[in-house]
Amino acid sequence: xxxxxxxxxxxxxxxxxxxxxxxxxxxxxxxxxxxxxxxxxxxxxxxxxxxxxxxxxxxxxxxxxxxxxxxxxxxxxxxxxxxxxxxxxxxxxxxxxxxxxxxxxxxxxxxxxxxxxxxxxxxxxxxxxxxxxxxxxxxxxxxxxxxxxxxxxxxxxxxxxxxxxx
Length: 166
What we know:
Elements: H1 11-22, H2 27-50, H3 57-68, E1 73-75, H4 76-83, H5 87-99, E2 103-107, E3 115-119, H6 121-136, H7 146-162
Helix pairs in contact: 1-2, 3-6, 4-5
């Protein structure tokens, strides 16, 4: 994440102060806003690390998910379900990955309505190299040691669970 702040103050703290004076309790608002801002910062850094491989983090997730499958391929519907994204987003990602030669579509011989995506040799190479790039920047999780990373994960997991994410 950037080490050179663009503002001489924390805009979320400033907003929280005004919120408290005009509306009321600001902690939930400033926490939600902070989570959203951290997500933007992390995604920006991850996408920058992946730029040399001409993929975004969303497409990287698709490559990794396919690589985790026991059969080496996954139905497009399963990709959407596991990544919790709309089928249109999966189709778009697969279209782009296929155009780059990183995945190929394969029809399901048992059910013609279903299509599988599988990594190509090039896709496996890009996934391996891009994983090294992401690991070299600790997935953009700066400022937290391993213990704090685990604590933060558990707190966010509780939020996800209470929202019905799993």
